[in-house]
Here is the input.
Amino acid sequence: MAEPVIVCKGLSKIYDTLEGGTVRALDRIALEIREGELLAVVGPSGCGKSTLLKIFAGLLPKSEGEVSLRGTPVAGPRRDIGVVFQDAVMLPWRTVLDNAMLPADVQDLDRAAYLPRALALLDLVGLKGFEGKYPFELSGGMQQRVAITRALVHDPAVLLMDEPFGALDAMTREQMNLELQRIWLESRKTVLFITHSIPEAVFLGDRVVVMTPRPGRIAEVIEVGHPRPRSLEIMATPEFGRRTAHIRQLLNAGGAID
Amino acid sequence: MKAAEVLRFITRDPGRAIRLRPEIVLIPLVFVLMVGGWEAVVRGLGVSQLILPAPSSIVFALFQGFSNGLLWHGFLVTLQEIILGYVLAAVSAFLLGALISQVRIVEATFYPYIVAFQTLPKIAIAPILLIWVGFGMASKVVIAALVAFFPILVNTIVGLKSTSPDKIDLMRSLAASRWKIFRLVQLPEALPYIFAGLNVGIVLAVLGAIVGEFVGAKAGLGYLILQMNFDMDISGMFAVLVILGLMGIAFHLLVAGIRRRVIFWQKDNANLP
Ligand SMILES: Nc1ncnc2c1ncn2[C@@H]1O[C@H](COP(=O)(O)OP(=O)(O)O)[C@@H](O)[C@H]1O
Ligand SMILES: [Mg+2]
Here is the structure.
């Protein structure tokens, strides 16, 4: 098997609080993200999911342990990652295409060389014909598709997604889950997908990392064997039900769900 | 609405336009009634021209002042003072604001001074500036620049620091340089604030130039007001006020027009003053 894309060992994060105390948000996390997999991380609010993602992205310094991406330690922001946040974070003065091309402008890449790639990706996420529109002309789901395009345009080693569909309504969200699976099947990117929805994690993930809070720990890593492409109907199967029930139990045992 | 849109709206179906937007008729009507009433009162009651001139005498004074070149020359002098002072203020306030917003130690060091200077009534420095810079145009340019400077500076700083943490995180996640974050995110995000400052600034620049001329000058509209006051030429003073009023409106429309073009993505542009 190929080298994992991200490896972290003994990773802890301790925040200083405003009152002068400290809070341990992550506690000795050990995790590998394999080449080409879609790894889902599920856990309740406040269990340290965003903290984990920000450390992987080099946006936040770690307190203890090791993190490396493609064999080099993560010491700060780097060009070979793509991040999708809960909010689409559009730049309203840029067209859809220019928002998608932001990484090229930020990293001084050859625009002409990346333009076909941006156009192809916009087509892939279903936004053909919207290239010249402005973000305020788009729905929330469409904006998030632009955000996914933007995170992929510079061909990063890994796509980090922090509850990307958390702000969408339930129907749009299911649709976006299907879309993401399709995009992932076509692009075969390595994806870290963070969510607090258990069904979403099981539906999307090749593996599901279950996290419990205070301090943030990995309770279990579950292999999801469902063949791809998965349709929304698998959510009604007994196997799917057993997996979600098992995860819910883990979270309850961790005192995560009150 | 832009002027062209308003015009199209009215000409397409005038009856409907007036029903939907009665102010199209009411605004000019109020003007006509006010000016007409003013004329009637002055003439009917025989009010002295030394107290309140009739609108017709003001129009006459305007006409006369422009044909003998007095008002025209004063207008050109004051216009230059305002524009030079305003541009000087805008450019220097923007550059200093950018520096302060980007370099923490500069902000920490200079912010107390800026706050202190801001509370000082800049107009009070005018007599001293006159001694330093002289009675010519330069002193009025400096005074106009000085009073317009602070609102632009403060708005620039606040605007450049108002970028949402999400957008900064996005840029950092792409390994953006400081310059790229400034140029691609902070600056566009600050534009609505900067234009708010520019809007206040232009009013203050006009004020600064006129007050500067009151304190001491050899030419300009403010100088003319003092001269006419001395000569008891009340109609002439009103004529200058009309010019100042029209100039203020023109400046405001200019800044608002540039703003609308630059910040095209803000949907609430239409409702701005
Ligand atoms: N900047 C910060 N300073 C102090 N505590 C923080 C900070 N950011 C997050 N935390 C704390 O760390 C824990 C994990 O936060 P977070 O990673 O955002 O969780 P999640 O994304 O799973 O909801 C929470 O208890 C939160 O209050
Ligand atoms: Mg979070």
